[in-house]
Amino acid sequence: MSRRHFVLHAIAAIALASSSFAQAQGQYPDQIIKWVVPYPAGGGTDNLARTLAESMRVGLGQQIVVDNRPGAATNIGTELVARARPDGYTVMSADNAVLAFNEHLFKKLPFSPEKDFSYIGAIGKFPLALVVHPSFPAQNFKDFLAYVKANPGKVSYASVGNGSPHHLAMELFKNRTGTFITHIPYRGAAPAMQDLMGGQVPAMFLDLASGLSIIKSGKVRTLAIGSQARSPLLPDVPTLAESGVTNAEVFAFQGLLGPAGLPDPVVVRLNQELNKALADPVVLKRFTEFGFEPLRGTPEDFKKLARSESARWGEVIRTNQISLD
Predict the structure, then answer these.
(1) Of the candidates 60, 59, 55, 57, which has an alpha carbon nearest to the alpha carbon of residue 29?
(2) Signal peptide location in the record (predicted)?
(3) Architecture of the 9-125+252-319 domain
């Protein structure tokens, strides 16, 4: 074969490969997508994923199957996705634990939140509210702060577990207010809320997804909320900032990740369908019932949020010497 013919054949092969790649990307998705949730079925993260998967499948034209992979403080499901083939057929729900806490709570992780994932888009956030049992001798936030300052170490608080958003939110609160409140970790939201409602533990930072029903029922008293603005679900509850505690916004966020190396067209398509789902009236109604605030934006917006939260909570974890090892 002459040099000229060789070059022509090479150019044709490259053109064919490029055409096939573009065609494959244009056909995405052409098979079932697996959505990994690193928590058990039935929880808040699982419900959010299933709600979005049902909405997104319409635009994508493919089924999305939720695959629950709980364990090791989300690390089991997260490592599975980090090692998955970067073809757009394995994605995951990622939250504070995956992207902001665990890299500081564990001495070593088998993946890097910054390097081993493709950021697809933010889903939203659960604001956390400071609540007390109705028998607690404080009717408002000012009285609560005065009481815990006058009784250092004598007031306890519940969390859904060591290293959870609920735990770290109170540790941040303690740092910002110079108070000493004793931590009592539980294994999950249900037992923590049960003892809170029973008066066995007097206080807690409670996410609205888990606790909105008991807040509305009056089984706990809500003193402040950790969002930037008042929640439309609790318009009479002041924010922590309004109550005089600055730089103490506390929330649990959610977003969509894939393994590192996802092709740009796949990321763009998934981001578009995610944002469409987040604007779906059916989804918005369900999220409102969860007490969840949707966030829409670009993959870059989501990564910026995640890395900012990692830096913020890393400082809290180091200051309070918290570890899960």
Answers:
(1) 60
(2) 1-24
(3) 3-Layer(aba) Sandwich (3.40)
